[in-house]
């Protein structure tokens, strides 16, 4: 254990030593080559200290993306070993801190992709094609993404080879701003064009039972 040995009356300084108990700490401290011990020494205090108090929480790493040497205050106990470079903003794994933990584990970075046991790579989401096409005798039914960040969803259109524009059949989207519905209420809405010549949809379905669908049943 670590002890801080201090001259309490003359107040000339202190020293940190490793010892089994306070008496041994005093013995070790008086044998140190330091300049504040003399024959007038009348009082000496010993204070146990933990390793936690000695930690500076200053970590230094080399960013593999911008090759900057980064020094920052970071507590790996509470904040983990994944940080972000303050220079380029890219992910910065605190590998040196990991290697100097009390019980370091073998480094397995890159074994299972771009990650390690402290930051496992996330499985890739299933790939959804931006456009799905199904041919029918009346034309091709096209399902395509709706690139509206506030109303994500999909269009379902009918396409024929000699037409300049697709004919809308339906739009299935998220919406929380339909003016005739409670403000801010999230909904999945299907808007249907029963007549493709109309500019606006002719029917609207506000889907119900969504919360019940996602609710986990208690066993």
If you had to describe this structure to a student in words, what would you say it looks like?
The model is unreliable at 8-12 and 33-39 (pLDDT under 50). The two termini are 51 Å apart. Strand 9 and strand 10 form a beta hairpin. By secondary structure, this protein is mainly beta. It has 5 helices and 13 strands. The strands form 4 sheets. A 6-stranded antiparallel β-sheet has the order 8-9-10-11-12-13, with no helix packed on it. Strands 2-1-3 form a 3-stranded antiparallel β-sheet. It is elongated and about 100 Å long.
Present the secondary structure layout.
Blueprint: E1 2-6, E2 14-18, H1 22-30, E3 45-49, H2 51-54, E4 58-62, E5 69-73, H3 76-79, E6 82-84, E7 91-93, H4 95-99, E8 131-136, E9 139-146, E10 153-159, E11 167-175, E12 187-192, E13 203-206, H5 210-214
Antiparallel strand pairs: 1-2, 1-3, 4-5, 6-7, 8-9, 9-10, 10-11, 11-12, 12-13
Main β-sheet description: 6 strands, antiparallel
Q: Which regions are unreliable across 5 or more consecutive residues at pLDDT < 50?
A: 8-12, 33-39
Number of helices: 5
- Helix-strand makeup class: mainly beta
Q: Tell me the distance between the termini.
A: 51 Å
Key attributes of the depicted protein:
single chain, 219 residues, 6-stranded antiparallel sheet, elongated
